[in-house]
């Protein structure tokens, strides 16, 4: 997947041609405005790793949307729900909530303010169900271990590169942070430059006591939700941002950063690809259709790293 000699020469001569990244010209890669992507990509390469940060969703972005054998990948909440010691009442009521609110979450016609209110209800009610019984982290870890190999292909290479270049990675998930961290740790990609902001279980006297605050739901995943969060101090001057997500709400995860920032938004599209493509192309700069790899973000980073290496000769 490395760059050719000609590509490396182009980088040395500060010439970054989008055509040099063949992946971006595959049939399953769509860009509404290639010229805009090229311009921002050149900013990234010329700006170097010190100005870069990555903000990524977890469920079905870092994890695959489908496994090669077609079997499903559990979401971070799905990993929780698979824990056998959970009371039957919790599972039943949690499933009822999922059946009621998931269709609202993905409804393309409902007004956003109505959807936000419903998501607040969903996460609040789920938190209220998670009260008064034991659940050890080790049980979540045991289920999560079955999904440590469900990261997108080349995720390890991507995280290794980000760690080597000391580029901060924010994994921003409206899912369950206890599962997210467990999968990342067991997949050996929970490097020091990786932070996770999500919903974490709260305990009181050894028993579950809902979620820690603040609530992160599908539609408040943006950097304003990071107000006064220590992560914000780490990245607020990194104005080159790669955003990665699988749902439309993920595209706003970098909202709240200075207007002068340059952002490339990568959208991983899988479900209802044909009917959703136009909306995804209007929302993300690069749309990858049924691409279960991290090859495109990795290619962007490889160009940054090559240029940095030349700069340091
Ligand atoms: N199975 C359940 N799924 C849930 C629940 N509450 C939310 N969700 C889903 O999780 C994703 C997490 O979002 P992401 O930011 O990690 O992509 C969200 O889209 C909901 O559909 C739940 O209680 N059970
Ligand atoms: Mg997701």
From TrEMBL:
- Looking at the UniProt record for this protein, which Gene Ontology cellular component terms does it annotate, in alphabetical order? cytoplasm
Enzyme class comes to hydrolase
InterPro entries in the record:
HAD-like_sf, HAD_sf, Pyrimidine_nucleotidase_eu
GO-annotated biological processes: nucleotide metabolic process
Annotated GO MF terms: 5'-nucleotidase activity; magnesium ion binding; nucleotide binding
Intracellular or extracellular location(s)? Cytoplasm
Q: What is its EC number?
A: 3.1.3.5
Entry keywords, A to Z? Cytoplasm, Hydrolase, Magnesium, Metal-binding, Nucleotide metabolism, Nucleotide-binding
Q: Which reaction does it catalyse?
A: a ribonucleoside 5'-phosphate + H2O = a ribonucleoside + phosphate
Please verify whether the record's keywords include Magnesium.
yes
Protein family: Belongs to the pyrimidine 5'-nucleotidase family.
Per its record, how is this protein called by name? 5'-nucleotidase
The species is Musca domestica (House fly)
